[in-house]
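Marked as duplicate of an earlier ticket. Keeping the data here for the record.
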Amino acid sequence: MGPTRLSILGVGLLGGSIGLAVRHLLKDCAVVGYGHRRATLDAALAAGAIHEAKGTAAEAVRGADLVILCTPVGIFRSILEEIAPALAPGAIVTDVGSTKRSVVSTAEQVLPPHVSFVGSHPMAGSEQRGVEFAAADLFRDAVCITTPTERTSDQALAIVEAFWRLLGMQVIQLTPTEHDRRLADVSHLPHAVAAALMTIQEGDSLPLAGKGFRDSTRIAGGDGGLWRDIFIDNRDNLRDSIRRLRGQLDRLETLLEHNDAEAIKLWLDAAASRRRALKAQREK
């Protein structure tokens, strides 16, 4: 059984896609959206992602049994502080943020005791932004990470995980600390590398770029403000990931310096083997 009144705070790509999915799957659930720009709310209404639009976050969460934060993580605290007095007893709050330690800690500090918080990170999306790119099937067959703590209600956790499964996701649990460590490697570092690859290019080289370069740098087209907040919030883990990547590049540079063809091939073959294993795992 899903929510009967869902509040989505931030109706962009992820928030809009949640709204479309819920309206398709839960016909009796009222979906209320909040955004700081009227044009965004109007677009969400026109797309059918929400039933109602509210101009403040506090208005949007009144009477909601499930609230999902879909704004950039950098403004989570201010949003949580605004909605805390307006949340109904028994309401559950979750999020789609790409970092978890600060998000979970802030929510547990700010929200009143009659409200439950469950950290969530649905691993879905694209470099596109805006509700016009939302899709009801965006979450299907993707992974959602939940990050319960000792303070997390078992009932609230079960409800949130059932919600993500309803949207077609596979759910796994990590601690907030483990989440941020692992995501630095598989999400935050790749975005930084894509941005760096774009940054080092000379203008006359880009017209020669083929599909491999476009694939490798696709995510560099994401929103700078959103990714800035993620990088800063997880900066300790991201710096460690950068150091380890630099170590691999330094190793390759040394092999090139010594013209060690066999070692270079072994290095590349090891990476190719891991990539094939990842592909096979995803195709199961």
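See parent ticket for discussion. The two ends are 29 Å apart (CA to CA).
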